Amino acid sequence: MGRINIGLTVIIITYNESKHIRRCLESVQDIANDVFVVDSFSTDDTEAICRDMGGQVLKNNFVNHATQFNWALQNCPIETKWVMRLDADEYLLPELVDELRNKLPILRPNISGLYMKRRVHFSGKWIRYGAYYPTWLLRVWRHGDAVCEQRWMDEHIKLLRGESLHLKNDFVDDNLHGLTNWVSKHNGYASREAIDLMNMTEQFLDQDEVPMRLFGSQEERKRWLKYRYVQFPLFLRPFIYFFYRYFIKLGFLDGKEGLVWHFLQGFWYRFLVDAKLMELRRDMQLNGSNPQSAIKNVLGIEV
User: Fold this and answer.
1) Cα(46)–Cα(224) distance, rounded to whole angstroms?
2) Which of 27, 119, 125, 239 would be 257's cystine partner, CB 3.0–4.6 Å?
3) Residue 288: in which H helix or E strand, if any?
4) Per-residue model confidence (pLDDT) at position 1
5) CATH topology of domain 8-174
6) How confident is the model at residue 3 (pLDDT cuts 50, 70, 90)?
7) Secondary structure (DSSP) of 126-168
8) Segments of 50-199 assigned E as strands
């Protein structure tokens, strides 16, 4: 089936994504009127692949995902009714493409946002357990009716008006780089996560966030739980979280790939975040510095 005009623009943030971007673009080529790729000055052939496949490339220096995506919303010449956010290592399943093709043109005017289910693949394995599937994310919205909340890590699309509904089918998050790349990337994530967690207690940054509700949407509930998580002692909370995911939520059923995933993402990563928080607090105590100065001294990040 060829491309059908359903009034959809797709925005993708990239940096050296030549291994993923073709797969991503191919998955939306039948439903996207326009694809804008906001690139952080890649040094591989990401830009060439995007242009070859009809994507429009804009360039902007990267600060964090929230800042980059909101820059994209402000600077991409979006002319369609609907906008989709997609990461370069993600792709839509054909069933989701068909669902979007059929539903977008007939949605009621009061529907402004669509939630999609994310499947995470790790080392070729679909991670089904450990409270990791389904993860519902607001990824499609009416142009002008949503923004990306301003956070250093774990940012969500925030609906400004209207109602939302949930689609039935999935998109896939499948990073094809090896474990060394995964560890390096998550080291960077841990620095940004440490900034977010410190801000929850120190309140030194203004952030536009989704509401916190235990019985709200999945991201609202996740934010509520995160604010409770930060109240637990450093280094104890990664143990609790891993135990919850791997044993209580049956992460062990994901096999040996799941063991690696849940340990690294559910324990090691959060332990690393706590270690960076410990460094930040030590710098503040020893040097009498404020959070912003400590973040620059320890993490090399300007906030």
Assistant:
1) 37
2) 125
3) none
4) 43
5) Spore Coat Polysaccharide Biosynthesis Protein SpsA; Chain A (3.90.550)
6) low
7) E---TT-SSEEEEEEEETTSEEE---SSS--EEE-SSEEEEEE
8) 56-59, 82-87, 90-92, 111-122, 125-126, 135-142, 146-148, 157-159, 163-174
Is 190 a residue whose pLDDT tops 80? yes
- The one-character DSSP state at 254 is G
Residue with tokens 């250093």: 152
- The pLDDT tens digits for 217-244 are 888 888 888 899 999 999 999 999 999 9
Neighbouring CB atoms inside 10 A of 282's CB total: 12
Find all residues with CB under 8 Å of 108, minimum gap 6, and list them: none
Q: Beta partners for 141?
A: 83, 113
The two tokens of residue 219 are 């991201």
Q: Determine if the pTM surpasses 0.85.
A: yes
- State the number of CA atoms in the 13 A half-sphere of 254 facing the CB: 27
In the chain, count H helices and then E strands.
10, 11
Going through the chain in order, the beta strands assigned E by DSSP cover: 8-14, 34-39, 56-59, 82-87, 90-92, 111-122, 125-126, 135-142, 146-148, 157-159, 163-174
Break the chain into its structural domains and give their ranges: 8-174, 179-299
Which pLDDT belongs to residue 212? 81
> Beta strand 125-126 with 82-87: parallel, antiparallel or unpaired?
unpaired
C-beta of residue 153 within 8 angstroms of C-beta of residue 100: no
